[in-house]
User: Fold these one by one.
Assistant:
Number 1:
Amino acid sequence: MFQLDIRERKPLYEQIKEKMKTLIISGALKSDEKIPSVRELAQSLTINPNTIQKAYKDLETEGFIYSVRAKGSFVTPLEQSKNYPGRDKLKQEFEKIVSELMYLKEPQEQLIALIKNIYEKKEVK
Amino acid sequence: MFQLDIRERKPLYEQIKEKMKTLIISGALKSDEKIPSVRELAQSLTINPNTIQKAYKDLETEGFIYSVRAKGSFVTPLEQSKNYPGRDKLKQEFEKIVSELMYLKEPQEQLIALIKNIYEKKEVK
DNA sequence: CTTTCTGTATCACAAATACTAATACAGTTA
DNA sequence: TAACTGTATTAGTATTTGTGATACAGAAAG
């Protein structure tokens, strides 16, 4: 599914979260699609299942996946993720970064262009 | 200048960085304005000078302040901060967040409106 | 030149937190 | 029952965090 980099100073579970998010956001993983079980992925990456669990737990809290005991973990359908709890936090992060970029005299047109670009790219899929 | 919250689980130097950033970005601290010395602020907040030093060092790396030995630390003028090293990193963060928000079906008009709002507010000052 | 203020660097230590691991528990399915 | 799921508990280690003490270096003021 993907590889981890031990030499990276970033925690393993963070790396897992990022890769998984990328797969979900990019559309490589569809709604309700089953993702590898904690043990499966652990074996595949040669790390401890608990590390996977931590990553999955975070991803669930952030609304990207949902887990069902004895069944597995799955990608959250968009409709359900629309009003997930982390949304406001994300927006606050967004505002913070925009404020900083503004302080650095980044033209707002540039930021708006960036947004449009991102939205267009994904729409094409 | 500001207060810290010991009960906060966030590191002291992180709190200092944030408060200082806010003061700078909001315009409360002007370009080249002198900020408290490491020892001054340490005494004022009743913490160790090394903690302040760590915060200041980070802020300098991020381009918000500059320090001159034996003189003090000062707010980086906007012109100089235009091409500071952390800018690209910030933009990457920006793109990441926008991608996530898009996945959550946040309308791009909403994000654009947010940006305009932030830029307008500060412009008025 | 001496004193006194700046920032900076280094080393050390304790406490807290982060990270990973080992193991056991619990529910579902076949 | 067996074999798969996620989940919870516990534990040990590594890293981060905050602090302290001390020393160095440059600038300003007397």
Number 2:
Amino acid sequence: MMIAVAVPDDEEAEFTERQREVLDVVLALMVEEGDGFSVARIARAASCSKESLYKWFGDRDGILTATVQWQASRVRAGEYDRQRLDAAQLRKSLEGFAANWLSVISSKTSIALNRVAVSHAGNGRSRLGQIVLANGRFAIGERLKPILEAGRAAGILDFESSEEAFRAFFGLVGRDVQIRFLLGDDFLLDEETIATDARRAIDQFLVLFGTGKDGKKNAGGTGDAPAAGEAKISII
Amino acid sequence: MMIAVAVPDDEEAEFTERQREVLDVVLALMVEEGDGFSVARIARAASCSKESLYKWFGDRDGILTATVQWQASRVRAGEYDRQRLDAAQLRKSLEGFAANWLSVISSKTSIALNRVAVSHAGNGRSRLGQIVLANGRFAIGERLKPILEAGRAAGILDFESSEEAFRAFFGLVGRDVQIRFLLGDDFLLDEETIATDARRAIDQFLVLFGTGKDGKKNAGGTGDAPAAGEAKISII
DNA sequence: CATGTACCGTACCGTACGGTACGGCGTCAA
DNA sequence: TTGACGCCGTACCGTACGGTACGGTACATG
């Protein structure tokens, strides 16, 4: 299957207002009950008829797929603004990116969507796995790489392949967080823990990929909390 | 739920020979078809009666739980032999550990079990998530930490918390591999890629946590392939 | 041989679910 | 006013599945 490059998965089915309302209800159901609800349950919760659901989305998998696409398309705003690069700014961007991503993957919404997508990836039904992959893992890769490359161009970072640098970033930031949440280990990961985890991850990342030519290398204690106004990366 | 410490999940239900045969068939079904097979399908595939299945395992969830436990108990052998510590030996152990774990999480069996466990963790049914967590993530943690601590005691490694050091190891080795496989991205990860990935991960790990007092720090090109005879870590 | 045990194969039951059909209601345009 | 349209609510249908029951067989034990 091997997802190639594409991020947006350009099939952008537009939904009507009513349909979006319904999809939000489905999303809430997925968060609360996983994948185990019936179409009748959706209709009841959303106060709509099963007939409408089938007319709009085809079948049950179509409902779930539309829900995931709707959620994925939701936060496609917030482009990263390419500011003038100095090491402190880069560090701040990376920390904001890391903290944001950590808060996303620990959110109930992301966990629920990933769970459904993973279970659907098992048996062949539906493309949910690919959709989540494209809008999660690969989307944030495509968003982070330009930042990394800008850092390299400015002489602050050093790496051969931005893909490999990104994967190291992914590992250092995410560690065991996502798999633990997916498997139901609901350990505490509050705002503060996320901030310190993000800082530690970026410290480590800069040790591995920083040139040390600009900015306090491996200092780590001074900066304030990761920028709150950073671009939302991905909701999945 | 926050799994505390325990690894073996000591409820070790012993299974008869016939039951183990059946559980292997269930495992094969899970690998091939995910979670979407009926109990009748198991009975047909295993040439046993549904009545026996229900007598042995209670209900369908009991069958799946027994399957996961059986697989988990399978490779609990292979203890790490505490050899005399020098840096080259430690590096070799870590590389072997990493390569072994990568080959496990990219195996069809592990992917299938984790998928089922993740989907069951969504709705509350069954303890599959916790079982997989205990025998996967936490089991390898408990196996690796003594090695890391031995390395620290020998002055080769430096870290405050072995838990944190292990989580960094986990991230550097696993990166995006597990989530990509779980979501159905069947990219190539052959023996050779695993070996080089393991070496790169350990190089990075040693940059972050090595003291550099012993052994070629950050050299990376010389060692041969990771020891093949290393202990099997975990099958999940 | 008689009895018990463990199991297989199959038939059976109740239910829950995916998907369809239909009647009714509000809205809007001619 | 009339008709078309979109939608809700509900009733309906077929099926597939979880779980149980039962008859039949092999085997072991006395």
